[in-house]
Structure formats: structure tokens, C-alpha cells
Amino acid sequence: MNDNMANQKRFLNKIQLITVDSLGEIKTSDANLFPNWKEGANIFNAHPFFEILKSLEEVVTPLEKEFSFSCVHLSEERNKEFICDVNITFELSETHIIIFDYSRAYLELNKISQERNDSIIKSQELEFSNRLLVEKEKFKNNFIANINHELSAPLTSIKGFVDLLEKTDLDYEQQELAKIIKSEASHLQIIFSDMLDISRIESGEFKLNKEIFNLFDLIQSIEESYKIILKEDIVDFKVTIDKKINPIVFADKTRVYQIITNLLNNAIKYTDEGIIELSIFKVLGKNRKQEFEIIIKDTGIGIPKEDQEKIFNPFIQLDDIKSGTGLGLYVARNLVHLMGGTINVNSEEGQGALFNIHIALQNAPKGNEGAAEKEYVLPNDKKYRILIVENRQNTQYLIMKQLLRHKCFFVDVVSNAEDAIRNIENRNYNLAIIDIKLDDISGLSLTKKIRNDYGDAAIKDMPIVGISGISQSNILNVALSAGMDSFIAKPFTEEILLNKITRLLSLRKK
Amino acid sequence: MTNQSKKITLIGPFGVGKTSLFKRFVDNTFSEDYKSTLGVQIQKKVITMNDGSQLSLILWDTEGTIKVSEGRSSYLLGTHCFVYVFDLSRIETYENINTQIKYLKEKFPNTPVKILGNKLDAVNIKNVEVTLKDLQVEYDFLASAKTGDKVDELFLEIAVDLVN
Ligand SMILES: Nc1nc2c(ncn2[C@@H]2O[C@H](COP(=O)(O)OP(=O)(O)OP(=O)(O)O)[C@@H](O)[C@H]2O)c(=O)[nH]1
Ligand SMILES: [Mg+2]
Description:
The complex is a heterodimer of chains A (510) and B (164).
Chain A: H1 5-11, E1 15-21, E2 26-29, H2 43-46, H3 52-59, E3 66-75, E4 81-90, E5 94-101, H4 103-166, H5 172-202, E6 211-214, H6 215-229, E7 235-241, E8 248-251, H7 253-270, E9 274-285, E10 289-297, H8 327-338, E11 342-347, E12 353-363, E13 384-389, H9 393-404, E14 409-414, H10 417-426, E15 431-435, H11 443-452, H12 457-460, E16 464-468, H13 475-481, E17 486-489, H14 494-509
Parallel strand pairs in A: 7-9, 13-14, 13-15, 15-16, 16-17
Antiparallel strand pairs in A: 1-2, 1-5, 3-4, 4-5, 6-8, 8-12, 9-10, 10-12, 11-12
Chain B: E1 4-11, H1 18-27, E2 40-48, E3 54-62, E4 81-87, H2 97-107, E5 113-118, H3 125-134, E6 141-142, H4 151-163
Parallel strand pairs in B: 1-3, 1-4, 4-5, 5-6
Antiparallel strand pairs in B: 2-3
């Protein structure tokens, strides 16, 4: 009876009082609401709600003999329905029933709950179907990843065996056949890896792997390999590079390569004669980035205006005669987008096509410039013991992996300066790599301590390479003046790391 | 009045199809429209058992609440069997179902509870079974008020259980 009392009073219409005996026969009733529920009638025939009297008889006690039910729908046979509160009180030989008609109040309330329920249900159903979609996608992507894995092993061996086969004594026709098998296998491999890339991109699992590399070297290697590919073709291949470009960039080298070669492969597929041109220009140079325009132009069959958007969709092929799937362009566009760039096509039917990519690549972080070009020579005289002082596990693991791959290093790893000092005092290290930001004292203070507190030359003169993710312009100077011998900005490549380390180790030897 | 009557109470979150199951069983009708139930509506259906005896099922179709404890407790009084309904197409209606069932069993230790997943027609059973398993939902029936699938089975099984 406590559903919003104020409202109830306002909306209360009528009350009906009924008294029944233990068999359910109505003894008295004012018949205010339900005229047929009157003296002599049986309450159990009035409405199935009243069957509750039977079950309540089982639970009634002298202490608990009054029960109230709110918001019960009651009606006489086929007549208007009332929404009522019902009070039931059990006395010794009779039972009193009071019915309050609160229909108006309850109907008012119902509007509100109906609206609330409707909107909640809508959103929950939507969430459910989204969830199913996500699960389906996940399943699909896992499936693709697994199937790729399963397929790549036999494919690799097919290629390997064809290689062996080619080295045997084959006549001309057999050689040609072997060549076809090989090229088809390579083609298949490309499709598989494109598929894998697409599934990763679509599932959001795709990550760019940045490294420092020389853009000129990359373009040059593309030029060389495509000259070979196109050697027997009557199609020319021309490469133009803008000399204003600062070629040392920090980007995902494999993916930049993939974007360019996917577009070149596409150009080759549709160009039977004429020329394919690859050009790269610097459009804008900022402090930390350069914006490039990469153009791939062909003299092939061209793309009609209405198909130009479609060509970036997977599995769309303009010319059915050409073999292969259209995955390459789709992958290229996704990669360009992932790198924050744009890709467009300009073409007319029969007039060749011009793809143009705008993309900004980061310059190599300060302190590493030029490093990408230098070669390093791994020591082969003995094994060197190196201490890594780094509090971040990822970096610890990365450096360890990069060093342990080469058999010439022993590596110890500690996470703080205190452990570093204990290790240094107990063991001779040929070199230490120290993160500038540690949890206890800074890598700079640790370096000063090593340089100043020890008489033992093996300790105080130990080569130290500082590493840090801090992008502060004078960090290199700070590191060097603290007594570090060299400094590497994070993130760095294995090349840079080994370059610095091997240089310091060889200096030390002399 | 020689025949027995048994009270069956339908409970569960709103919109899961309690009213639809009730209507499917009582009148063999179904409506796509959703009209949320206010309070409780009660109907009787007399069924004839195998031995010829009759049993009146008094069905209490209650207003949906997310938690059992949020509902009007008087509706639960004197129940002979609960049917806890959830909606297979809305995870929110069954991700915490075990807590709800536990609550019910503590309050009414002697009253059986049937757990039913409704709207089977609207979902892909393979996917849903995985989710149900993940969430450790134990159910007695997966049904559809829309197609009528397993609706009679539910109430007949309850009837048989209650008579024995
Ligand atoms: N597809 C499908 N829809 C159903 C089924 N059962 C119910 N519905 C729909 O689900 C909505 C809610 O059904 P109701 O029976 O009113 O749900 P309820 O549990 O009584 O809801 P409340 O009274 O608010 O607690 C309605 O639009 C029904 O048409 C079913 O088996 N399949
Ligand atoms: Mg309902």
C-alpha cells in the first residue's frame, strides 16, 4: 500500500469491502467496484487471484494474519479491468478483503516505466548484436591467422623444392614450368600475407613497427628489384627521388615498402607497354616530420571514373582477364591510413593511372642521426659481459633479446641503482647500459657514483651507455657531462644499439 | 473444487517475455508489441493430467524487475513453482542470474525454480550456448514464446512435478 501515497490519494476512486467464510462464500460485500462479487457468490469463482487465499491459509499465524497485495489486475468476466491494491485479513472464521481501485495512478506510473523499459531494452539488444558481430569478426580473423599459418609452411617448402628442382638438369620447357610454379607460389604467398594483414587491420590488432631507416636505400632496393622483375618486359621503369629529402626517417620500413610495392605490382598488372614511374618528393619539412608525396604512374589500361573508388575494395577486379585478387590496393590504402596519410587515384580509361600518396614520416629522434647508416662489427675475440639497468620490463626484455641474439654477450639485468651497484661491485662488466630515469636514484647519479666512488679502474672506467625516452634537446649533453660515454634515445633499433656498444667496446680494447 | 490448484509465478527482468509466455500458454497468442506489465496479472488454466485428473494452474505474470528483491515480495507468497525467465538476446538479463536464483532459493527453500531462456528464435543458438557456458548459467529450458517452442513443455513438466 505504499506505492506513492500522495498520488494514490489523489487517484483513489473506490473501495470494495468483502467478507468471506472459510469455504470462500461471500458473506457481505458492498459491491462498489465489482457488482457481481456479492453475497452468496463464491470468491474462488470471482477471479483466480483469490486462489491465493488457499495458499495463504497455510502460512497465516495469529501474529501474521494481514497481507497486502498491491497493483493487482482484477476484473469480472470480460468486464473492465481495474488495477487494485488488495488487503486480506484472516480472522477466526472469516476473512476480510478490502479492494482499493488505484487504476488511474497505476496507469500513470506505467507510462513512465514503459518508456524506461523500452529504451533500456533497445540499447541492450543493440549491445548484444554488436557483441555477436565482434565475436564473429574475431573468429574470422583467428581463422584467417590460423589457416595462414597452416598454409605458409607447405608453401615455403614448395618454393624451396622448386629452387632445388631448378638447379637440376632441366630442359628448356621444364625450366619454364618450374618458373611458373615458383611464381604462382610467390603469388599465393602474397595473397595469404595480404589476407593476414587485412584481418589484423580490421580487428584493430595491427601495429606499426617503427624503426630508423634510410629512405633512399629503401627506394634504391625497390628500384633494383623492379628493374629485374621488368627486365624481360617491354615496360620501362623509372625512379625519381627529390634530393631535398632528409632520408633518415623513423617509420615502419616494412610497411612503407609494402605500400609502394603493392602499388607497383598493381601498375605492372595493368600495364602492357610504356612506362611505370615511381617518384618521391618532399612537400613539407617540419621540425620533427617531413611530408612526402609518392607518385606511382603507369601507362596501362586506366580506370574509368566510376570504378575509381571501387578499386580499393578487396576482391574487386576491373579486368577479369588479369589473375590475382585486388587485395594489394586495399592493403595499401589501409596502411596509408594507419600512418595518417591519404591515397588518391587519377585516371581515365585507356590513359593510364596515377596513384598519389601523401604521407608524413617522422625524422629520426635526435642523437641517432646518421647512426642508421653506420655498420658495426661484432666482436669475435671473446664474450663481453653487459649490465642493463632499466626499470621498465619491456625495454629490459627488448635489449636482452637484441643482445643475446648475438652470441658474443653475457647479459645481466637489474631494475634499480641499488642492485646495479651490488652487481658492479661483485663482478666485472665490460659495459653498462643505464636508463636515465630509474626509480631510486637517477641513472645520472648512478653514473656519477660509479665514476667518483671507486678506485678500481675496472669499475670507474667502465663504458656506460645512457638510454632514455625523454625528448629533451640537451639530454645528450646532460648524459655526457654526468660521465656517460654515449647516449641512445628511445626507441632505438638493434642496429643503433649494437653500433654504439661495439664502438665503445673496441675503443676500450685499444 | 475437488481439483487441485497450483500457483506458478513468472519472474525475471522486464521485457524478457514473461507475459508472452503466459499468453502463449493460456490463449495460444503472441504479439510483437511490448507492453510492460504493471504489477501482476493472474490467469487460470486447467489442464487434464494423464490419469484424467484435473489441475488448475494459477499463473502469476509479474512486472519485470532486474533483481528479484526489487519486486513486490507479496507476489511471491504461496508460490508452488517459480519460473525465472531471461532473454537470450540480452546478456544483461542473465549475466547475474545465479545471484538472483540464489536469493530466491534462500527465501523459498522448498519451492522449485525453473529457469528458462526465452526468444530462442531471435538468436543463434551456437553462439549463445557458448556465452551461457562462459557465464555458468544453468537453465531448464530454452524456449520461444513467439514460435511456441518448449512453452507447453515447460508448464506440463511443472504440472507433473507438482502433482508428484
Ligand atoms: N523474437 C521474440 N520476441 C519475443 C519473444 N517473447 C517475447 N518477445 C517480445 O519481447 C517483448 C517483451 O515481451 P513481454 O512478454 O512483454 O515481456 P515481459 O517479460 O512480460 O516484460 P515486462 O512485463 O515488462 O516484465 C515483446 O515485444 C515481445 O513481442 C520470443 O520468444 N521471441
Ligand atoms: Mg510482462
